[in-house]
Design brief:
Blueprint lengths: L4 H6 L3 H23 L2 H17 L12 H27 L11 H5 L6 H10 L4 H12 L4 H8 L3 H35 L9 H19 L1
Helix pairs in contact: 2-3, 2-4, 3-4, 4-8, 6-9, 7-8, 7-9, 8-9
């Protein structure tokens, strides 16, 4: 009789954890990116999620169901803790005198966009939701879990997930439209303020054209 993956994980089988990582690491990473909006932080969350899964392996219940909801629940908790730690770190940095600025183009070059402009606006809008609404939305809508599975992953009642999801849908639609509108206004403002490519203002170009015309007329006289 073949032993289920759940049983092997619960027993601490290293090969089972390797299989678990291969099958679900990309899903956990995608969930982390959507929760945090940052690829680097998402990489850290994936590592911490599987470390925490190893520590909590004995809590895995018997059966043949996928361990994906269990991992997503762990990742959600890790993201919460990471966010708290980041806020504490930022608060500590504020109290430190800033060093002299040093240009660093590496981060700008290697920065990757997680989604399109619309999804970026959705990510910004998502960050403005209450934490419970945000977690319900990411698990049920983006990760495709049903309300009961998401509730088990979050450790709350099914009715709580459904009500949070309903509120999240309504607020997110409105907030996303606002974010898109603001992004478009900012983009237009940046375009109007963009300097002339040759470093000249329209007035200076007109003056130069008049000077050239006058010089030509003088030569033909």
């Amino acid at each position: 009789m073949e032993i289920s993956l759940r049983a092997r994980v619960r027993a601490g089988d290293p090969d089972a954890f390797g299989q678990l990582f291969d099958e679900h690491a990309s899903v956990v990473h995608r969930h982390a990116v959507r929760m945090t909006g940052d690829w680097g932080t998402a990489d850290d969350i994936v590592s911490l999620t599987f470390l925490e899964a190893w520590r909590l392996r004995e809590r895995v219940l018997p059966g043949d169901d996928s361990l994906r909801p269990w991992l997503l629940g762990i990742a959600t908790n890790v993201a919460r803790n990471t966010s708290r730690a980041a806020r504490r770190h930022q608060a500590a940095l504020v109290r430190i005198p800033p060093p002299d600025p040093v240009p660093d183009f590496a981060d700008e070059v290697t920065r990757r966009m997680a989604d399109t402009e619309e999804l970026a606006a959705t990510q910004r809008a998502l960050s403005r939701l209450r934490r419970g609404e945000r977690e319900a939305f990411t698990l049920c809508v983006w990760e495709g879990l049903d309300a009961a599975t998401a509730a088990a992953a979050l450790g709350v009642a099914v009715g709580t997930v459904r009500s949070r999801l309903s509120r999240a849908r309504k607020r997110l639609r409105r907030l996303t439209d606002l974010e898109l509108g603001q992004a478009q206004k900012q983009k237009k403002a940046e375009e109007t303020q963009r300097p002339d490519p040759v470093g000249q203002s329209p007035g200076s170009r007109r003056q130069a054209a008049r000077s050239t015309s006058e010089s030509t007329q003088e030569k033909t006289r």
